[in-house]
Amino acid sequence: MSMELDPRALLAITAPLVGAAWPVLSGLALFLGRPLSERATCRGTAAHALALLGLAIANTVLLLRSGSAFHHELPPWFNSGGYHFNTSVLFDGFSAVYALLTAAIYGVIARFSFQYLHREKGFNRFFLLFSLLAAALTLVSYSGNFDMLFAGWELAGISSVMLISFFRENTRSAQNSLRA
Description:
There is one protein chain. The chain has helices spanning 7-31, 38-66, 93-116, 123-142, 146-164, 171-179; strands at 70-80, 83-91. By secondary structure, the chain is mainly alpha-helical. A two-stranded antiparallel ribbon has the order 1-2. Strand 1 and strand 2 (83-91) form a beta hairpin. The model has no long low-confidence stretch (mean pLDDT 86).
């Protein structure tokens, strides 16, 4: 059984995967006790932001050329009882605006944060959480069903709470993160 993949669907599938790649790599380096240098973190985050923006632009161009939204079902991740965790991507006008806005704002905030957090104790942790938030919002913008939307939204919520409480020593930021 051959499964032909529409180039639009291939780009839409690639965007959430690219979105997850940098947070996974930088998180693995932190977990192994080998944090990246500030320069490597800046370059990786900048490349991540440019890749997400490039994919959003490419998907938007393909959407405008074709004139119609596209929806692509992927094989289910797992089956349990009668429940199937299906994955699908959807790219329409709303997704295009949301993906472009997310990628552009992510790049602008990352650029500002490079200088603002220079030599800060949790530099790598901040960019890991921030990249995770960008990946989650990318997943939300490309989600084609409720399951993927819920997964992306929960990941965005967790990373947002952790970003709010970034300065652990400040009790006020911890209290505010619990409110969020």
